[in-house]
Amino acid sequence: MRYSAPTTVDEALATLTAEPNARVFAGATDLIPQLRSGRPEPALIVDLKRIDRLRGVTLTDATWTIGAATPTSHLTRNAGFAADFPGLTEAAGLIGSDQIQNRSSLGGNLCNASPAADSVPALIANDARVVVASASGERVVRVDGITIGPGATSLAPGEFIIEFQLDRPAASTSDAYLRMIPRTEMDIAVVGAAARITTDGGLCTGATIVLGAVAPIATRVNDAETALVGSTFTDDALAAVAAAASAACDPIDDKRGTIAYRRQVAGVLARRAVALARMRSTASSNESSQT
Amino acid sequence: MTRTHVQCNVNGDEVDFLTDPAESLLNALRDQLGLLGVKEGCGTGDCGACSIMLDDAVTCACLVFAAEAERSTIVTIEGLADADKLHPLQQCFLEGAALQCGVCTPGFLIAAKALLDRNPDPTETEVRYALAGNLCRCTGYDKIIRSVLAAAEEMRNDHGVSL
């Protein structure tokens, strides 16, 4: 195995063109355990962290740009970002210990393509996009177009993610991410639920609800969104959200949870995530009316 | 096999070594630089026994390729004390009996230092979350938490005096 640390996107692309049997990485928090567990070594590992464009959290006009290899701790400690995306910040802050969060990245969490990846439902709920580097040029792809199955992405060989783009939330809009694990910290999601809610007074005018860890890829629950938009968050509407979330699950049975348990918890978490995002959206509208 | 030349600063000293691309920073620190205070527990980033400061960020050395350390600044447990004077965290761990077998202790001390560097006055809950990436199979954690809180208080008081 060889090691390469390119400093520009073009250099990385050329390196990957020259060696098809290569793996790119940022924090290596998934790559190293995979290699240690006996997965075949690639001929080349390509460290993307030394490319400036892949590191940093910046706000330009109304769009946040997050370098794909930026440690998630840089996100969770960015007060401006956390104020705009409290749910995505929560999700990033749930990925492993401080030790892990100083290395783990949104690009890695997405491209590792675990069904239980915590940041992915929250990224999808916020309509996040990625800029993909490719020998044929850059292209912009929605995050929900990247993961296609456990461990599998739509990226072609030699491609990698440069950065994430997130538009600042509209007025009276906020998000939430809740995760069920059997302990308080340091575990892999049994169920994850992200919601982004827009309100107008007591009325729900926008909803995006995405589940993690209950299907091969993060799952958007369109029926729950339909049930919510136009409602005033009545008990009936929230019950419909929970039922739709449970119905959207296609989970596995494993030591962390049975299929029936995951379905049940998905409904509960979706409902709670909606309630939390709603509360935050109301708070954000109060702030804007004061300014 | 291509070996990579790595230059970095470890505990204040400029060092350089040759590494195989598959070698972890943990193994390079132990086997090439003789820093045996960096412990291997799980080797997969779950236990925190190999915690080091890498460019001011607490990190599991087992989850870093040694080649990645080029031009970095590293602090291991060997760099915590000031010559013969133990760091307040080390002293409080001793006085508070916050260790038994000791394998996890260097990692706990580094993770605790990382916490106190950014938050000199943590609550017990904040200490527990900050040390959630470090496993101890002997103590039951309470003495570790209390020792970190004691060291934090001592460091705040000392800092106050020196001002």
Could you name the key traits of this structure?
heterodimer; A: 291 residues; Enolase-like, domain 1; 4-stranded antiparallel sheet; 11 helices; 14 strands; B: 163 residues; Ubiquitin-like (UB roll); DNA polymerase, domain 1; 5-stranded mixed sheet; 5 helices
Question: Can you walk me through this structure?
Answer:
The complex is a heterodimer of chains A (291) and B (163). In chain A, a hairpin with a 2-residue loop joins strand 8 and strand 9. Chain A contains eleven helices and 14 strands. Chain A is of the alpha+beta class and 291 residues long. In chain A, the strands form four sheets. In chain A, strands 4-5-10-6-7 form a five-stranded antiparallel β-sheet, with no helix packed on it. In chain A, strands 11-12-13-14 form a four-stranded antiparallel β-sheet. The N and C termini of chain A lie far apart (56 Å). Chain A has two domains: 166 residues, Uridine Diphospho-n-acetylenolpyruvylglucosamine Reductase, domain 3 (2-Layer Sandwich), CATH 3.30.465.10; 118 residues, 2-Layer Sandwich (Enolase-like, domain 1), CATH 3.30.390.50. Chain B has 163 residues and is of the alpha+beta class. Chain B has two domains: 76 residues, Ubiquitin-like (UB roll) (Roll); 75 residues, [2Fe-2S]-binding domain (DNA polymerase, domain 1). Chain B is built from five helices and five strands; from the N terminus they run ββαβββαααα. The chains are: A alpha+beta (291), B alpha+beta (163). The interface between A and B is medium-sized, with 27 and 31 residues.
